[in-house]
Amino acid sequence: MDEARTSPRPEGVRTRTEIEQERAQRDYLEAFYREGPPPWDTGVTPPELVALVEGDGALPAGRALELGFGTGTNAVYLARHGWDVVGVDLVERAVETARVKAAEAGVTPRLLHADATRLDEVDASGPFDLFFDLSCLCGIPPHRRDAYAAGLTRRAAPGALLLMFGYGPGAFDDPTAGVSAEELSTRFSGWELVDTTPGTNPVPTFWFTLRRD
Ligand SMILES: C[S@@+](CC[C@H](N)C(=O)[O-])C[C@H]1O[C@@H](n2cnc3c(N)ncnc32)[C@H](O)[C@@H]1O
């Protein structure tokens, strides 16, 4: 029998397949950063985040947690706009690059080399008013996604927002990649999915906004 189907298992116990999936994802991401700036690294803060921070009815600056900050463009942007920012990224080289970018910008977001699905292992305690995920969860292996949601839920201030960009299921050859509105509604118990806006990419993408009850 497929060992992945023999649940329930105690939290933290992983099958060999799951361990392999996590290792493969990490290796895949590390290779991108080794070879120079990865293709997603535009250096531009998306208008969806700018609207939340600077637009009509902008959020008051508070505490923000960025999941998968890459080379730090948006953590720096938030810090420049008065937010107290903590960020996590799985790839050490990304973290080093982001720290240099923040120092050059004269801001001090706390940028941690850490796994967004294992936030209890680092000093990233809440509460946070804003969570930002630009294409992180959609690449996380499915068996770690409930832990991601639980980690954010435990750290969310009442009424906190999660702004997420994700590739949809089927955007890549990998059948485990991608995220849908249905999945978020199921995994994020205690949150309301308040908006889903399709992106403009040639493959299915979405901007999701969730609010903690
Ligand atoms: C597609 S990249 C996007 C990076 C950045 N948000 C941007 O748009 O430039 C996804 C990022 O999430 C990070 N990531 C993936 N899985 C992660 C995890 N479990 N915990 C923390 N970071 C993760 C990757 O290392 C990578 O930097």
TrEMBL record:
Its EC number is 2.1.-.-. Residues 1-23 are annotated as: Disordered. One of its GO terms (molecular function) is methyltransferase activity. It comes from the Bacteria. SUPFAM superfamilies: S-adenosyl-L-methionine-dependent methyltransferases (SSF53335). Keywords: Methyltransferase, S-adenosyl-L-methionine, Transferase. It is an enzyme of class 2 (transferase). It comes from Nocardiopsis lambiniae. This is Class I SAM-dependent methyltransferase. PANTHER family: METHYLTRANSFERASE, METHYLTRANSFERASE DOMAIN-CONTAINING PROTEIN. The keyword rRNA-binding does not apply. Coiled coil: none annotated. Residues 65-159 form the Methyltransferase domain. One of its GO terms (biological process) is methylation.
